[in-house]
Amino acid sequence: MTDTAASTPPLTVMTVNTHKGFTTFNRKFILPELREAVRKVGADVVFLQEVLGTHEEHGSRVENWPDAPQYEFLADSIWPQFAYGRNMVYPKGHHGNAIMSKYPIVHHQNHDVSILGPEKRGMLHCELEMPGAQQNVHAICVHLGLAESHRQQQLQLLCEIIKTEIPEGAPLIVAGDFNDWRRRAHDVLWRDAGLKEVFVTAYGEPAKTFPARFPLLALDRIYVRNASVHLPVVLPRNPWSHLSDHAPLVAEIHL
Question: What molecular functions are annotated in GO for this chain (predicted)?
Fold first, then answer.
């Protein structure tokens, strides 16, 4: 082990689709419960999908609706650094991806990867400054489209972002909701970007995460480059199946 590796702490990452702070079918607002559950995980960096930036109607009719954007409410005092990428805009508000970090976010950029049609998608790229690391850590929060043809184009856009924005030797974490129920992303991301999926590496197959109550599909992923992973886990059904329609993933990243 190098001196740099020995002095750089492991990075615990988590990815979760927040479903805009509501239970399945929008029956109940559970963002405060979700915040407590995310806090208990103790992750250093949290990748969020479907997080609301603002919604005028919900703010006036939903009890306990936070004054701040949802990503700020979730970050609170635990994650002093956060970035938000607005993807879907509608008359009453907008939602997108967010990254919360205990370490400084020194740069962030949101990439619009929407394909023709009403479905808006984005990739939020953040650069994190880690103690003891020779290079900054790059993190990309992903939420891909529902159509296979859209996902294939978005995977190529992701590879192009990595090629043009991220130094070849820098640690890279790509996490989020890939909607890749056909499991076609692995080969593309390995061939064109050198990314390895952490559950495939550890256990031979991706983790099933959707629907959270009885997971059948491996939609959520964590990919890494220039890093190793220790014992990635799917968080348990209790309480998560009540808090999201996707089971969250957690992994300990070693730089």
Answer: endonuclease activity
Residues 52-100: tens digit of each pLDDT: 876 665 655 777 777 888 899 999 989 999 999 887 766 676 678 999 9
Kindly report the pTM of this predicted structure: 0.93
Where exactly are the structural domains of the chain?
3-254
Structure tokens at 125: 């790229």
Give the strand order in the sheet containing 122-128. 105-112, 122-128, 137-143, 172-177, 220-225, 196-197
- pLDDT of 125-146, one tens digit each? 999 999 888 899 999 999 999 9
**CA–CA separation, 129 vs 210, rounded Å?**
33
| Domain made up of 3-254: CATH architecture | 4-Layer Sandwich (3.60)
Longest dimension (CA), the chain: 55
How far, CA to CA in Å, does 52 sit from each of 1, 8, 179?
Answer: 42, 33, 19
Candidates 216, 227, 223, 140; CA nearest to 185 is 223
Q: How far apart are CA 157 and CA 154, in angstroms?
A: 5
